[in-house]
Design goal:
- The structure holds 2 protein chains of 2 kinds.
- Chain A is mainly beta.
- In chain A, about 10% of the residues lie in helices and about 65% in strands.
- Chain A is built from 2 helices and 11 strands; from the N terminus they run αβαββββββββββ.
- In chain A, strand 9 and strand 10 form a beta hairpin.
- By secondary structure, chain B is mostly beta strands.
- Helices cover about 5% and strands about 40% of the residues of chain B.
- Chain B contains 5 helices and 39 strands.
- A 5-stranded mixed beta sheet of chain B has the order 2-9-8-4-5, with no helix packed on it. Chain B has a 5-stranded antiparallel beta sheet with strand order 30-31-38-33-34, with no helix packed on it.
- The radius of gyration of chain B is 46 Å and the shape is rod-shaped.
- Classes of the chains: A mainly beta, B mainly beta.
- At the A-B interface, helix 1, strand 2, strand 3, strand 4 and strand 5 of A face helix 1 and helix 2 of B.
Chain lengths: ~240, ~600
């Protein structure tokens, strides 16, 4: 992952001397569909002796992205970006005699290539960018189960991973103040290919699935919206 | 500037916030609200007292989700477990069980029903089965199961009847008295008295004569009970005494014990003579037989008849066999007897001094020959019993005295007794009589003879024995063995077969005997033992003794004279005859207990 990121940065620094370029850092909120993981959580909870309550279920949470793009002519641009996000799910039950808890914590890191067009307003002080990003999502998660009965506690922990392919149409409005721009963006992240979830300790082993054997997938599909800052370079 | 931005972006990514899971759900379980249950034991409130006089069936209702029940324990005094069955119903569980009077001793005891179930709180510990709820409910049980004392049974007489009395039992668990009445050898009756104050019974059927057992069992509601018993002492014997001067019998018997049920004494002698004596104190009867059959005793019996003689077999009976050879007939004089000490019988035989001569042979040989255990002539069919306790006595008819064990040596020397012996089978013994004739003995080495009672002559040496153990029951076995052969053309029949040989016994006036017990004759040559002929004698056949020179027996399957079968022994020279089975039909005068097996008709 780091290698890819460094490769992108090197590409960016080289391109900066060739044409007008932009780098940006965005922070926003994402919503996550996570249908499989919610069902997986419910199925797992149903096998426990008591009825757990779902106290968290993949709520919207802060995500981050950074990227760059290079103008091609006066209206087109291409670029690359990376993003990071996380969310989780918890089902819990406690009483005087013990407790049962199921936790899922998922993080993703993605890299994508992007391209789009630029519409200029107010003598280029306001820019609208229409772009389409598409890339790979690297998912890392932890599945934790803890059961306490009296003074006896038992736990089970799994580190798991998977990969998705996604596309995200995004609209970004930039108000330029010289070489610095303030960005507002909104996008729709769509995971159209969900990879199987494997345990880190046994990547080639059995995948995680539902009771009926169907593999589960970590679906980050959802809205993306946020603010950011961008820096313009070149002519 | 570019490097700074690059570094900044990396730092932002590195320190970016990651979602952290938080929140919990705590289920507040109110333990002060225990599930409502209700228990019921036969609608008795906990702590109530139940009287256990007999087996009591309990139903215990416990309202709870049946699936929560883990166990039931029914305890008496916290120790004795009682098993039960559970039935699920809409509201919970119904437990059914029995408490028996024998489950505890008399008095108060504690009954506990302990129901163990899951707690029902819904907590993790509950659903994991680690949290239980134990409900203990108690009642009192009052056991009334006293064991009555063994009743003391006594017998007494009341108004001429036997009265059975017993000690009472008045405990609250009294159920009944069961009076068992049984004779010592067959029937048993019982009577039940449900009134605890009834303590006696009049037996209107017992007149005495046999042992009767009266047992009284005091039954309680709970079943088993002690039993007391009393026995009557009832022997009933018939004896006789022979008066030689007029050849009469004097029968005497025991007096009936109870006059109440007494009806009469029923005395029968032989086949046809029956006498009824109604006086309970008259316990003797002199019997004057119209005719004495040579060698044939008389069967006599006396029965104690009761007024309600039902069934007749309940009346006691005594019998004797008057099997003496009374010299009442004038055809011969018997001057020797054999006396069987086992069955206390006397057998008399006439001996013609002119025919029998004094035995003077070697005494050892004689003893060997007379011993059925060692001598060949006696080792016939299996089942011989040894000579056991049978003595030989000589009975002098003139002096009417019986001498003790006959000494062969003295017998041989005194010239008076020529040889008398008696043996018995293993069970009840019969008598074998030997008439030893010197000339015959020397010729044949056989120790016996066949004697023509009519003519008082010795026909042949013969061995006659009665292996009584050869047949089951009281069946006797007759074997007429040895060398029976024609002697100078004189007639003889097999072993004094005729119950009453008469002087007019001739071919034109045969004796006819009906066989009531089947048997078979074998006729074998004495020289080599080969079988010459087998003559069956099935039940119901008749035969006639005949007096031709050439024939010894005539048989017939019916009364048709043309069907008579003749055995021609003219050419046989020597042969033996065996009665292989059946009773001593043809020698009935020696097998007195079988008198009724044949009947002489003329």
């Amino acid at each position: 992952m780091l290698r890819i990121l460094f490769a992108i940065i090197i590409c960016f620094t080289c391109s900066c001397s060739l044409a007008q370029s932009r780098i940006y850092f965005n922070t926003g909120i994402g919503t996550y569909l996570m249908d499989d993981m919610k069902t997986f959580q419910a199925e797992t909870a149903s096998s426990l002796p008591v009825r757990l309550k779902k106290v968290k279920s993949f709520p919207p949470y802060v995500n981050y992205e950074a990227g760059f793009d290079v103008k091609l002519g006066s209206r087109f641009f291409v670029g690359a970006s990376g993003s990071y996000g996380s969310s989780g799910c918890r089902s819990d039950y406690q009483d005087y005699s013990g407790s049962e808890r199921l936790d899922q914590l998922w993080k993703y890191k993605s890299i994508a290539l992007s391209g789009g067009i630029i519409q200029k307003f107010m003598n280029e002080k306001l820019l609208l960018r229409y772009e389409l990003r598409s890339g790979v999502i690297f998912n890392h998660g932890t599945l934790d189960y803890r059961s306490t009965l009296g003074t006896q506690t038992s736990t089970q922990h799994n580190d798991v991973h998977s990969r998705n392919i996604y596309a995200q149409p995004t609209v970004t409005a930039t108000r330029r103040f010289g070489p610095i721009g303030i960005d507002v963006y909104v996008g729709l992240n769509y995971n159209f290919s969900l990879g199987k979830v494997y345990d880190d300790s046994d990547p080639s082993g059995p995948y995680f699935g539902f009771f009926n054997g169907t593999p589960i997938g970590v679906d980050w599909t959802g809205l993306r919206a946020g603010l950011g800052v961008s820096f313009l370079f070149g002519k | 500037m570019r490097y700074f931005i690059t570094l900044l972006s990396l730092v932002v990514l590195a320190v970016a916030c990651t979602y952290e899971l938080e929140g919990e759900f705590f289920n507040e379980i109110d333990l002060t609200k225990e599930p409502q249950i209700s228990v019921s034991l036969n609608d008795l409130q906990p702590g109530a007292t139940v009287t256990i006089l007999q087996t009591v069936h309990f139903t215990f209702d416990y309202s709870i989700d049946p699936g929560r029940i883990k166990s039931f324990n029914i305890l008496i005094d916290s120790a004795h477990g009682v098993s039960g069955n559970t039935i699920q119903n809409d509201s919970g569980i119904t437990l059914g069980f029995d408490i028996n009077p024998g489950d505890a001793g008399p008095g108060l005891h504690n009954l506990q029903i302990i129901v163990t179930s899951t707690s029902g709180t819904g907590s993790i510990a509950d659903v994991e089965g680690l949290e239980q709820r134990v409900v203990v409910t108690s009642w009192k049980l009052n056991f009334i199961n006293d064991v009555p004392p063994t009743p003391v049974v006594t017998l007494s007489e009341e108004n001429g009847y036997l009265k059975v009395s017993w000690t009472p039992y008045t405990g609250v668990n009294f159920d009944s008295y069961v009076l068992g009445i049984s004779r010592s050898f067959d029937d048993t009756q019982s009577r039940v008295f449900k009134d605890s104050l009834t303590t006696s019974f009049i037996d209107s059927a017992y007149v005495g004569g046999y042992i009767k057992s009266y047992s009284v069992a005091t039954h309680t509601i709970t079943g088993g009970s002690p039993t007391g018993t009393a026995l009557t002492n009832g022997s009933f014997d018939l004896k006789y005494d022979i008066r030689m001067s007029d050849t009469t019998y004097l029968f005497t018997w025991n007096k009936a014990k109870y006059a109440g049920p007494f009806k009469n004494y029923y005395l029968s002698v032989g086949i046809n003579d029956v006498y009824t004596i109604s006086d309970i104190n008259d316990t003797s009867f002199r019997y004057d037989p119209s005719e004495f059959l040579f060698g044939q005793g008389q069967f006599a019996s006396v029965v104690l008849n009761t007024k309600d003689r039902t069934p007749p077999s309940f009346s006691p009976m005594a019998y004797v066999v008057t099997d003496a050879y009374l010299p009442g007939t004038k055809k011969f004089n018997a001057n020797f007897v054999a006396y069987n000490t086992t069955i206390n019988r006397v057998y008399g035989f006439p001996i013609d001094e002119n025919t029998l001569r004094k035995y003077s042979a070697d005494l050892d040989d004689l003893n060997d020959a007379l011993d059925p255990r060692t001598s060949v002539p006696f080792s016939g069919p299996t089942g011989y019993g040894p000579v056991d306790g049978v003595g030989i006595k000589a009975f002098d008819l003139e002096t009417k005295t019986v001498t003790d064990q006959l000494d062969i040596a003295s017998m041989a020397s005194n010239g008076t007794i020529y040889g008398i012996n008696s043996i018995t089978g293993a069970s009840n013994g019969v008598v074998l009589v030997y008439f030893l004739a010197k000339d015959v003995f020397q010729q044949t080495k056989q120790h016996g003879l066949i004697y023509d009672m009519v003519n008082n002559i010795v026909l042949s040496p013969v061995t006659v024995d009665y292996p009584g153990a050869a047949l089951s029951g009281n069946g006797k076995y007759l074997r007429v063995g040895s060398n029976l052969y024609k002697n100078n053309g004189s007639f003889f029949d097999i072993g004094w077969t005729l119950p009453n040989p008469s002087s007019d016994f001739r071919a034109d006036n045969p004796e006819e005997i009906i066989c009531h017990v089947g048997f078979t004759f074998e006729i074998r040559k004495s020289s080599d033992g080969s079988l010459l002929r087998t003559i069956p004698f099935p039940v119901g056949t008749t035969y006639r003794t005949y007096d031709p020179v050439k024939h010894i027996l005539m048989f017939s399957d019916n009364d048709d004279p043309t069907m008579y079968k003749f055995i021609d022994i003219e050419s046989l020279q020597q042969f033996t005859i065996h009665a292989l089975s059946g009773a001593a039909l043809i020698n009935g005068n020696l097998v007195d207990s079988h008198q009724y097996f044949y009947k002489a008709i003329k």
